[in-house]
Amino acid sequence: MSNVTLYSISYDLSHAVVFAVGSLAYGSWRAAIDSNAVVTTIAVLVFAVILLAASMLNTIVLIWYERKLLGRFMDRRGAMHVGYAGLLQNFADGLKLFRKHTFAPREADDLGFYFGPTAYMVSSMLIFGILPISSGWNSGALPLSLLLALVIFSFAPLFIFVSAWSSNNKYSLMGGMRSAAQMIAYEVPLLLAVVAVVLVAGSFDLSTIVYEQQNYWFWGPLVVALVVFVAAMLAEMERIPFDLPEAEAELVEGWNTEYGGMLFAFFMLADYLRALVGSILVVLLFLGGWTLPTWVPSAATSFPLAGIFWFMVKTYIVFGLFVWVRASLPRVRTDQLLRVGWNRMIPLALLSVFLAALLVSARCLPVFGCVPSLGG
Amino acid sequence: MTEELTATEKPSDNPVLYVARPMATAARQFAKSLLRPSTIVYPYERLEDPKFREQVQVASGKPIGVGAVWDNYRGVHALNIATCISCNLCAFSCPDLCIEMVTVPGGDPKHAKKCPEIDYGKCSYCGFCSDACPEGCLTMTTRYELSTPKRSEMVYSPQKLYEVYRTKLPMNPIRLERPANEDSILLDPPLCIGCNACARDCPTQCITMLEIPKPTAKPGEKLPKRIWKEPVVNDSDCVRCGTCVSVCPKECLFWGSRR
After folding, report:
1. What would the mean pLDDT of B15-32 be, rounded to a whole number?
2. Mutate which: B13, B14, B18, B30, vs A, most A CBs within 10 A
3. pLDDT at A371 (0 to 100)
4. Which pLDDT value is given to residue B156?
5. DSSP assignments along A48-63, one per residue
């Protein structure tokens, strides 16, 4: 089973389908259908569909997971009614949103109003094509996949601003402005924290970064970078306590005030897609991706798809941390967010870069491989 | 809530504590409610269930519903149709006009039996109707579940109220302490025409029409055209509902003291 990759599965599926269709055809038609180009094209499409389905399913389960966790933090149960322990509640909600009439305000700019949520959704989905979730389970070895992921991740405030502005609503516009303003405060420390990881790993390729964590996970030597990265990621995902653009106590519903039905569902899904991507990035950069520490018995890593399983477990634990933060902390003010970003997070991130450079140049990183609790 | 914050509740200036303290509180809450949150899954679990007895603080001997918490609870009415005398007092006393007297089968042919039909969309659960009921057949129970997808189902017919009565829920008859009504029904004889309306409509049948001697007409005087009978009220049976006063066409019956 170790040779099974996402691409091999989609290639086999595509080959079987093409072979079945081709066996019905004659002569030159069969040759045309059975050609390698057709098989590869369909394989890529199947690949995309599998990614789409998996990411959507994960997103919906993530919403359920957050509702249940938040419920326990608030001494209640969360969704209980539809399905076992409310598992199907979000499917019911999605179905309701799907059936609702979508309309734009009369004075809204239609192009931006419909382009915004769609582009937000698409840009969030794009990142899933880049992220590796287990060895071999990625779309290909891009040498700069980490940079590409962060670049696509940073597109979102632009689309939020476009949809907020074209809604022609003052609350939407305020939310969009806040989203754009807050981006500057957290992008810099986020990228500086990533620089520390890249210095230690010596690569921008996410798969390589994970392979570099075979001996020790990076959260041990780079604990300062981890703190900065998680805080900046909370702001990047616009979750509480940094959900200023959506502050429902002040701005009705922030930048998605005017959206309803499926367009709102797009925003909601994309928000949780980004939360999932954020958790995955934390796992990939600091928690060793799909690898497990060497002192774990090999039975835990030898079953089929063990890499993906442990990867998802780690991702959900990291997302649980985000929910914990959401349940505990109040929303910060804009000036507080800017002060935290510029006055505290950027010096900390610079410190982490300095520490990483020191560790690499002093060649004392192997020390961390001897501490079993650091993983690897 | 103008009390000053205690020292432990003051927000800290230390940024680490500022984050760590609420997160520790949330983690404690999470650990506490991980097994059993304080909420109950209401449609599937009910506070009436004995396993929640401690939670609702009801002494173990008492049935839940009349315990310390719900001692004076006023929910859906229970109506015992068999003892209802159709006196109309509940409808009279209702401040929301949500009670309508509707005919139910079982009355004698002359005297239709009418029982209250209650519209819970209007009812304010004041309990005046139960207090006014002379026979104690309209009481309030501890039933609190009234939600329904149809507005018309908020109107409870007498039969439906009787079904509530048959469930034997803990009843809460509203009985206010007050001096008994000493007034009686009095008659102004010259006005009466002996029409029998009061005797016909009296729910307790305590009015009987007694014949009175027809006076002999003096020459030149014209006797009034009437039936030579007059109502006599049996005070011990009268529930003082006032039906006779309201049905009298000549307004010759009124409230007053015999003394």
Report:
1. 86
2. B30
3. 67
4. 92
5. HHHHHHHHHHHHHHHH
Residue-level pLDDT at A1: 39
B116 three-state secondary structure: strand
C-alpha span between A161 and A167 (Å, rounded): 10
Q: What is the pLDDT of residue A246?
A: 81
Residues 6+ apart with CB under 8 A from A8: A136
Q: Identify residue A323 by its one-letter amino acid code.
A: V
- Give the three-class secondary structure for B119: strand
Quickly count: other Cβ atoms within 10 Å of residue A29's Cβ: 12
Q: Is the pLDDT of residue B64 over 60?
A: no
Q: Which of A165-179, B9-23, B214-228 has the least mean pLDDT?
A: B9-23
* Cα–Cα dist A237/A245, whole Å: 11
- The tens digit of pLDDT for each residue in A33-63 reads 777 788 888 888 888 888 888 888 989 899 9
Helix (DSSP H) and strand (DSSP E) numbers for chain B: 6, 10
CB contact under 8 Å between A76 and B33, yes or no, is yes
> pLDDT at residue A24 above 70?
yes
Q: Which CATH number fits domain B77-172: 3.40.630.10, 3.10.20.310, 3.30.70.3270, 3.40.50.10490?
A: 3.30.70.3270
Q: A369 pLDDT exceeds 90?
A: no
d(CA B8, CA B216): 100
B29: chain A residues, CB-CB within 8 Å: 72-75
Q: What is the DSSP string of B129-160?
A: HHHH-TTS-EEEES------S-SGGGEEPHHH
In the A/B pair of chains, how many CB contacts fall below 8 A? Answer: 43
Rounded to the nearest 10 degrees, how much is the dihedral formed by the CA atoms of B250, B251, B252, B255? 170
Looking at residue B99, what is its pLDDT?
92
Nearest residue to A154 (alpha-carbon basis) of A13, A278, A340, A320: A278
Nearest to B37 among A72, A324, A328 (CB): A72
CA dihedral B188, B191, B194, B198 (to 10 degrees): -60
Distance CA A87, CA B228 (A): 82
Count Cβ atoms within 10 A of the Cβ of residue B184 and give its class: 0-12 exposed, 13-18 middle, 19 or more buried: middle
A73 inside 8 A of chain B by CB: yes
Domain segments of chain B as ranges: 77-172, 184-215+224-256
B22 vs A69, A76, A329: nearest CB: A329
0.90 surpassed by pTM = no
Name beta bridge partners: B76.
none
CATH tag for B184-215+224-256 (out of 3.40.50.20, 3.60.40.10, 1.10.443.10, 3.30.70.3270):
3.30.70.3270
Give strand pairing partners of B198: none
**Separation in Å, CA of A342 to nearest CA in chain B:** 15
